[in-house]
Write a structure and sequence with these properties.
Blueprint (H helix, E strand, L loop, with lengths): L9 E4 L5 H12 L3 E6 L2 H13 L3 E6 L5 H14 L5 E4 L14 H27 L5 E5 L12 H21 L5 E6 L28 H14 L3 E3 L2 H12 L1 H9 L4
Parallel strand pairs: 1-2, 1-4, 2-3, 4-5, 5-6, 6-7
Helix pairs in contact: 1-6, 3-4, 4-5, 7-8
Bound molecules: NADP nicotinamide-adenine-dinucleotide phosphate.
Amino acid sequence: MKRSDLTGSRWIVTGATSGIGRALAIELARAGAAVLASGRRVERLESLRSEIAASGGQCDVLPGDIAAKKTRQSLVEWVGSRWQELDGLVNCAGVGAMGRFDQATPDRLRQIFEVNFFAAVELTRVCLPLLCRGRLPIIVNIGSVLGHCAVPLKSEYCASKFALHGFSDALRAELLAAGIDVLLVSPSTTDSEFFDSALEDQTAKNWKGTRAMSPERVAKKTIAAIRGGRREVILSIGGKLLVWADRFFPSLVSRLLARFAQ
Ligand SMILES: NC(=O)c1ccc[n+]([C@@H]2O[C@H](COP(=O)([O-])OP(=O)(O)OC[C@H]3O[C@@H](n4cnc5c(N)ncnc54)[C@H](OP(=O)(O)O)[C@@H]3O)[C@@H](O)[C@H]2O)c1
């Protein structure tokens, strides 16, 4: 469904304390939406709220660990008591780790899946009744190009984003009749705090490189996809090329990627 006007729409944005989530909260508020922003760092949420309020926008904040059921429940209860309905849910909170799978602990895998997959899925589950009552409702899952083409040294992260990709596709079909859209956004490397906040980096690589997209640009492209009623967007040309090459020349791409495995 197209959404030319976001004025007055009501949104939950997770992972709003930095990077893509923060930029999305600002961009949504700029478009006239009301935002309930979440993340663990309270002072970051307060500064987001002040920044949005200073430019005339509406932002409320609710801090907490999104992997905890009680945080997700608080978000739903907040929306239920204030708005009664929800028009958009952005599952953006995410975490990564860099290093070989055979040198990683089971805990690393669990932590990544708890935030990137289970939290997004379970928040979606409890938000569905609110979204059913919303106006042109949409679930926006922030995936990754690595949820289309997996790379070495980020095995758990890739797996979590593939899982989110699969969930998004299945849910989109299930929710079509209810009129709830599901948009999967797949950014490439983004100039955020993501690599500094990684659970672990056992490599000596410069992951951010020099071509990272700004979170603001990711947010603008995401809003354009929301407005345009898109079902899936891969944001960078490099990302599109990688996914295309992997689809049509999988053996070649595997051999090339293996060079980066050390
Ligand atoms: N950066 C990239 O290169 C890139 C590329 C493709 C996709 N993505 C995806 O984009 C999304 C946003 O990442 P980013 O690049 O903006 O990184 P970021 O700046 O590190 O932001 C990550 C956000 O997730 C939140 N978060 C992490 N663990 C959380 C937890 N347990 N509970 C609540 N919030 C939690 C963080 O907030 P607190 O620490 O305050 O809790 C922060 O707001 C992620 O899903 C990521 O996988 C990133």
